[in-house]
Amino acid sequence: MQPDIEKRLVELEAKVDAIYVSVEKTRKYFFWTMIVTLVVLVLPLIGLLFVVPSFIENYTETINTLGI
Q: Could you tell me the residue ranges of all domains in the chain?
């Protein structure tokens, strides 16, 4: 009975190692997905902080120039 248990333990250890590798790949995938999401969402918002005031200034200058 002892060799059978040892064989099962070795098989389980191999499966646990395979699961660990898979989990690490998934963790890295989620990490980079989060980074890309932040870049895609946050950087345009930061850009808008500079563009919107400039647009409003140009818009109000145009309105004042037209005399409206």
A: 1-68
